[in-house]
Specification:
CATH topology of the largest domain: Tetracycline Repressor, domain 2
Shape: elongated
Number of helices: 9
Helix content: over 70%
CATH superfamily of the largest domain: Tetracycline Repressor, domain 2
Structural class: mainly alpha
Oligomer: single chain
Largest sheet: none
Radius of gyration: 20 Å
Order of helices and strands: HHHHHHHHH
C-alpha cells in the first residue's frame, strides 16, 4: 500500500524549490544589508542581483522588514542549534564547554554576515521581532549558564556567578562576527582555538583572572 503519510513527490518538489528561492533571496539581501547597511539597501537592488522582479520577492517576503527579521533570526538560530548539539555530548562540563565554544565560534565565522547584520541593525527591527530574537538569545544564555552551573558544582569551574559569566562568554563569541576577516591575519581555526583558550581562562581554577 502507498505511504499516505508522505506528501506527493510533486508537492515535495515544489516545497524544495520554494525553500531554495527563499534562501537565495535571503542570501542576497544579507549581502546587501552587510555591505550597504539596511537603510541604504533596497528591494530593487536585491531583485537586480537575482535578475528577478520585485513582485517575485514579495511572493516570499512581505517587505524589507520581513527580510531583516529572517536575516537576524538565521544567525541566532544556527548558534542556538550548535549550542544544543554540543550539550548532548557525553563528558565533563569542561569538555562540553569546549565543544560549545568550538561549534558556536565556527557557526559565527561561517555565518558572519547574518550575525553582523543583526548586531548592527537590531534597531531597525520591528519591536515584536526584536523581542522574539532577544528571547532566543536569552535562551542561549540560559543553556550556557546551566552548563556553567554544572561545572561549578562539580568543582571544574571557578566562577562567582554562572549567569553573568554566560553573558561574558556569549558576548565574546558574538564579537567574532564584527572583527573576523576571511583571508585576514588569523585563520578561522586560530580564531576558534583562541576563543576556546580565552573562555577556559575565564572559568578554570588557578588563572590570573581569578587571583
Amino acid at each position: 500500500m502507498p505511504d499516505t503519510k508522505r506528501p506527493p513527490r510533486s508537492t515535495q518538489l515544489k516545497e524544495e524549490i520554494a525553500a531554495y528561492k527563499r534562501r537565495r533571496i535571503l542570501e542576497e539581501a544579507t549581502d546587501l544589508f552587510f555591505i550597504q547597511g539596511y537603510d541604504c539597501a533596497t528591494l530593487d537592488a536585491v531583485a537586480e542581483r537575482l535578475d528577478v522582479t520585485k513582485p517575485f520577492i514579495y511572493s516570499y517576503y512581505k517587505n524589507k522588514g520581513d527580510l531583516l527579521r529572517e536575516v537576524c533570526q538565521t544567525g541566532i538560530r544556527l548558534s542556538l542549534f550548535a549550542l544544543e548539539g554540543a550539550l548532548v555530548i557525553e563528558g565533563t562540563a569542561t569538555e562540553q564547554l569546549k565543544a560549545v565554544v568550538e561549534r558556536v565560534a565556527r557557526i559565527i565565522i561561517e555565518n558572519q554576515r547574518y550575525i553582523s547584520v543583526y548586531l548592527r541593525e537590531e534597531k531597525n527591527l520591528d519591536p515584536k521581532d526584536a523581542r522574539a530574537i532577544r528571547e532566543m538569545r536569552h535562551h542561549f544564555d540560559e543553556l550556557l549558564s546551566d552548563l556553567l552551573e554544572k561545572g561549578k558544582k562539580a568543582g571544574e569551574f571557578d566562577i562567582a556567578d554562572p549567569s553573568r559569566t554566560a553573558i561574558w562568554v556569549s558576548g565574546l563569541l558574538s564579537w567574532i562576527a564584527l572583527w573576523y576577516r576571511e583571508g585576514g591575519h588569523w585563520s578561522a581555526t586560530e580564531v576558534v582555538m583562541d576563543a576556546i583558550n580565552m573562555v577556559m581562562k575565564m572559568v578554570l581554577p588557578g588563572n590570573a583572572a581569578h587571583g
